[in-house]
Amino acid sequence: MLPPLSRADTSLLGRWWWTVDRWTLLAVTTLIGLGYVMMLAASPAVAERIGQSRDIFLLKQVFFLVLAGAIVVVMSLLSPRGVRRVALAGCLLALALTALTLVAGVEIKGARRWIALPGLSLQPSEFLKPCFAVVVAWLLAEGRRTRRFPGMLAAFAVFGVIVLLLKSQPDVGMLAVISAVFFLQLFVAGLNLWWVGVGVIGMGGLASAAFFLFAHVRSRVTRFLDPSQGDNYQVQRALEAFGNGGLLGRGPGEGRVKDVLPDAHADTVFAVAGEEFGLILCLVIVGLFAFIVLRGLLRVLVEADLFVILAAVGLVASFGLQAFVNMASTLHLIPTKGMTLPFVSYGGSSVLAVALGIGMLLALTRKRHNGELL
């Protein structure tokens, strides 16, 4: 049996343990565990329906979740400088691969967002969310620190490239999340409120343009506003699942929504949780996401480094928005959007990208003294 880590332990592991936010780490570990439980509940029925082995999705997701846990720990060992370097390299690589999807990507439902790899369909744009948030934080902080450094101009230039790439795929939902996080970081960095208003109006204009330019966006918004206009089968089944689950749920394995929804193990896994485990587990899931977001924001209140503040705000906002979009669309509070529930839904690219972002957040919010780790 290993001896408990002492505060006097100056090894890499010892310093990490006493400086990392262990409460956030516990919440993330709990979500990873819930992801395993939900794959046990939802994936066998989906696999059987499409003629695959019952355990195919479960085995894949267990591998992704284990790898995600390792990524969280390894990334959380880094210094802020190390996080910045990883984010810069990751952003450049994700941009290149996202551009590659336009010419060599796999087309699914009219969109080119994925690159086919052995045993995995990689969605590079997922990795843009955490990496771009950190890169923007560095550019804005460096621009504030060095007056001649065009930090804001460079940030808008990179954002413009991302807008063009995601519009071309198209992936309006991903673009909306990245845009919201970007303008939030600009606001926290001290952007004049007048420009913030211009940005909000611009986002409204882009949303209106997406409604008229993209048929799938128009269809989803129309069906949300008027359920009689088109097929709302998935939303109706999901809402029925929550009603069937009640307070305590029908019990593990007793749910029916996973037998009829094609993405029960992925985008609508929250409905499976509601039917089989009830309102209580759904509230626990919501509470875990809220705790991680609020804990991350509270940790940066004592920070003096603008880069750390902006990067942490961007990372928790991206994480929280993704969770909100998934759960709200499943509950028919917003138009449907194919976005996974972090760590809980099936999806290799999403799980690994979210793990990368959480690992960066844990690294940036470790206890420090004058910028150095304790």
Write the layout of secondary structure elements.
Elements: H1 12-19, H2 22-49, H3 56-76, H4 80-104, E1 106-108, E2 111-117, E3 120-122, H5 125-145, H6 151-168, H7 172-188, H8 193-213, H9 215-225, H10 233-245, H11 269-299, H12 306-330, H13 348-364, E4 368-369, E5 372-373
Antiparallel strand pairs: 1-2, 2-3, 4-5
Give an account of the 3D structure.
This protein is mainly α and 374 residues long. The protein has one domain. Helix content is 68%, strand content 5%. The strands form two sheets. Strands 1-2-3 form a three-stranded antiparallel sheet, with helices on one face. β4 and β5 form a beta hairpin. α2 runs antiparallel to α3 and α12 runs antiparallel to α13. It is globular and about 60 Å long. The two termini are 27 Å apart. The mean pLDDT is 86.
Brief summary:
By secondary structure, this protein is mainly alpha-helical. It has helices at 12-19, 22-49, 56-76, 80-104, 125-145, 151-168, 172-188, 193-213, 215-225, 233-245, 269-299, 306-330, 348-364; strands spanning 106-108, 111-117, 120-122, 368-369, 372-373.
